[in-house]
Sequence to fold (206 residues):
Amino acid sequence: MAREPNDYALRRIHADRVVKRQIDELVGLAKGALLDGKVEQHEADGILAWLHANVECLDTWPASVLYDRLRAMLADGVLDPDEAGELLGLLMQIAAPAGVGAAPAPSTLPLTAPAPEILYPGRSFCFTGVFEFGSRADCHEAVLARGGEAAKGVTKKLNYLVIGSVGSDFWRHSSFGTKIAKAAQYREDGAGIAIVSEAYWVTRLA
Fold:
């Protein structure tokens, strides 16, 4: 009678080891993709194919988030520049999470201070980075449902730039940082752009 729990425990230990090995390998893939500072189509395809072949880890961070995002990005078979920037930020977070000494020194985000009131009707919102809230499409839907407008890029007429919280500390080192830098420059030039964090934006969705 004592054999069944022992067998179960052994299977559990083995399964945990498999998942740990796969996650370690995934972190290695992320680091490899970041060597040239950008993410190419073939690299995104390769990581998604690897995830398809290593399903045991798909319920574990970071595979759980990366798998969902990659499937959405590559649903049309093309990794566009905006998606490449989003993916780069996520891979940075995976390869060098906060607290790891080898990570680039975090850069303070140029958030609008004090935090502005967020109004939706007739206001335009641009999203950059990787969001815990969901995909970029999910963020756009939340804005549209409240009467706002979803903008693809940063212009002087933009009302809000919302920065995703995943990997945002590394914004100066990622391609999505160009939107942040452009918005900050426009704001300094007198444009009425408010730059806010995902965390703040989410609290104003109610």
